[in-house]
Amino acid sequence: MPFxxxxxxxxxxxxxxxxxxxPRASAAGALARGLELIDQAYLFESQLKPPVLLxxxxxxxxxxxxxxxSSKAGDRAFVLEAPPCRMRVELPPEAxxxxxxxxxxxxxAAFVERCTGEPLSKKSPTASVLLRAVLSGLxxxxxxxxxxxxxxxxxxFRGQLAGIGARIGIRNDRLTLVKVYPGAPGHRxxxxxxxxxxxxxxxxxxxxxxxxxxHRIRGEVGxxxxxxxxxxxxxxxxxxxxxxxxxTIPSVEAESLPGGIIYAKIxxxxxxxxxxxxxxxxxxxxxxxxxxVIIDLRQNSGGSMLGSASIGDLFLSEGLLxxxxxxxxARVPGLTGEIRATSDTPFANLxxxxxxxxxxASGSELLAGSLRNNDRAVLxxxxxxxxxxxxxxxxxxxxSALKITVGNFLPKGLAIPGGGMNPDIEVDRYVIAPGRVRLxxxxxxxxxxxxxxxxxxxKAADRRPVIAIPSVEELNAGEEGAAGDHTxxxxxxxxxxxxxxxxRRAGSTSATExxxxxxxxxxxxxxxxxxxxxxxxxxxxxxxxxxxxxxxTHASLERLxxxxxxxxxxxxxxxxxxxxxxxxxxxxxxxxxxRGKIVGKGSVLSGHGLLFGLVPPGAxxxxxxxxxxxxxxxxxxxxxxxxxxxxxxxxxxxxxFPVVVRETPRPHLAFRxxxxxxxxxxxxxxxxxxxxxxxxxxxxxxxxxxxxxxxAELVRGxxxxxxxxPGETKVAELKARLLLSPAEPPALDxxxxxxxxxxxxxxxxxxxxxxxxxxxxxxxxxxxxxxxxGEGASRIVVFRVRDDRGLEWVLSRVDGDQIGFQRxxxxxxxxxxxxxxxxxxxxxxxxxxxxxxxxxxxxxxRAEL
Length: 865
Fold this sequence. Notes:
This protein is an alpha+beta fold. Helix content is 18%, strand content 38%.
């Protein structure tokens, strides 16, 4: 799989505008209309198989409703169980359309509500939950927005909102203005970066989440919001009244570089990005920077299709920028069919280099592809992500919105190739440290899901790099890479430096001409880079010699013997262990520049690079690496494979190799509270935290969340304990103040968390004085009690679940399928659950146990065997 961009999924969408569609008489209601739209407009028509989608939908609903279990009863039928209820759901033989899922889904929703006493969701409309369940069987870019999320999506798409113009975050447990945008209402009112927000309209921000703060600060244009600020160096708190206005979300950063070069970084595409980009670049262009522009898209995962195309139009006075195509190349109703360049071309004479990476996706690929396919820009960096689809958003009658994949965008009529676009100048970047190496992004084997494959009816713009230049960053042990991670300043970024030098030496408005002029310089730069890489690798014991003349041949896996060994036989959770990979050349010819990568879904070793270099005939080379499994890891067996490469490409894939991870002692936190009145109208909230496990708990945070209403505020909302040893109890003294006298006392959300082992427990504390402390609360304990033989090659894993306050239910899943659910009788404090495990050396089994006690505390046990 290609690298997944690490930005919110919303930013990955190249989106068309929201279309409000009234329900048709033939399909009234949000569920019916949503299914109808999927059936009529979804791009990948071959994936619309009602039995498969119903199966996937039931899997999704099972995760929402623990008491529900479904099992297949034929090709088109399923049996639902929520003890003591049981029901059969069946698609009729003539059902061939997604619309035919409506009645079965409605029956499932009614069954859940009748047999569990609760709806599918307390937060989302039932129709939205059901549509989201159906879409879980399709691509990850198709989804349903609830009304509130729909509003956020619209803000991202339009690039504007009504507010004060500041980015807010939590710094040192305090609500802070991380960035106040120049010229925005907040900046004009006097707010500055780093200001700590103590109150919003008189309400304390202690314990307030960023989401809640944003909700309070945003509002209608022209209305005021009062912020009480703590500013470094100010002797007292400051009050600012900010009148809300229309704020443009910044998406472009630009500056000039030596030699008349403009550097412009685009973080995402919205409808305001073209104006933002034009303003920044035009200002620098008029100041005399005319040697060329570098457009950095390495951290840009997409956004508005029209916003992206409009930037391309700034560099082209004529020609086709993009076209769109739906099923089998047909036009998509309501979607722009093609976009051509206009005569409004302020940067027609600026040479262009675009920087790309595996994070460059969707709308940023559209811009890069449209300019390159028009011979207007050189691409430099790494291969892009490869998302060439466009999504369209439709309004539904319940206030939600359905966003589905409806077509492909085609830069100058050519599809984005599956697996991404190769740059013209590929920079193969290695990062090496003692026992650790990261290979270039080009070293990846593509097993593309259907939504990233190029449709058979489209022609892709698949081009090979003109030149591949290696680079290397050498680090000390424990040091993290800096250069090339796309967060360094342009002046210190090697790829920016290469692009700037290319523009200074060979800048041209024709990409072909620019590459031709720079060919000798690029060749010389490659030779110099290869010598530098070989020198660095030699310091790490790797001979990076290249074959002389025709001496080198492409290696084959048949010539290699590959092994993988773990020191002491297993990796311990939370501890650093050593792993050795050995390759032996069984052939008669030397193998040059051999390198590799460990791959394995979910494995702690996945992604680790391997360097072997020259492997003479009969010789063996080893690479040792360090790996640290998460402390949360349970005893498990992971399977990994080793991909091997030489300069000609993939040599082969060896394995699988089993890697055992052994769990280590863990903390187990219990807590209770007591509320008591104090002076000044405050309430003292005493939280006791006891470690009942057999390992220390570190950085334990006890925190109250600010109530969403104005009935109370927090005076002291959190405390962190560096260490709570086994058997030890620590006490957090927190405070809150009632602002009103409500009929029912407000409740505060409490969280007790420990990051190293992933502990996150919650409870609601009523602000009601109590003479005694509450009962202790802690999650159920889940452990392996033993194994026994099953039928054939299978074995049975016996799990024991315990909880002193009484268990409510326990469920089990194997490879995602729910296979067991037990609802416990009142007073049950211990239960056992048997889970089948097929002991296959070439395959692992994913096992999940989940349990809830009578106080609502839950525990989850995950392992691979």
